[in-house]
Design a protein that fits this description.
With 127 residues, the protein is mainly beta. Helix content is 0%, strand content 48%. The protein has no helices and eleven strands.
């Protein structure tokens, strides 16, 4: 059974940085396209970033472009989300997800594409 475990969340002041990690077990990370999503309080889950199996291509939501960077280390079975210049609007529970299909990266902006999800990690940005 594939399991995803996020870590690295916490409380940070606006303008600060955090790095989230997503450790994958029970499967081979290089087999999965990966994504990060977030769910702000009282709102629906939204796409943040995705990365292809090899890590050769990434795509970020406009709201985080230039501030967040998704990356992966297949040897360590871990995906990362480096977050910089954080804003109060970034406050949310952040989830990583794995897609076992070989479809286009563009499908991975849709949460319904994913097969496995982590439990989430809270990120709170104070003003």
């Amino acid at each position: 059974q594939v399991q995803l475990v996020e870590s690295g969340g916490g409380l940070v002041q606006a303008g600060g940085s955090l790095r989230l990690s997503c450790a994958v077990s029970g499967g081979t990370l290089s087999s999965y396209g990966m994504g990060w999503f977030r769910q702000p309080p009282g709102k629906e889950r939204e796409f943040v970033a995705t990365i292809t199996r090899s890590g050769g291509f990434t795509y970020h939501a406009n709201s985080v472009k230039g501030r967040f960077t998704i990356s992966r280390d297949n040897a360590k079975n871990t995906v990362y989300l480096q977050m910089s210049r954080l804003e109060p609007e970034d406050t949310a529970v952040y989830y990583c997800a794995a897609d076992i299909s070989s479809g286009s990266w563009s499908h991975r902006t849709d949460s319904r594409t994913y097969d496995y999800w982590g439990q989430g990690t809270q990120v709170t940005v104070s003003s």
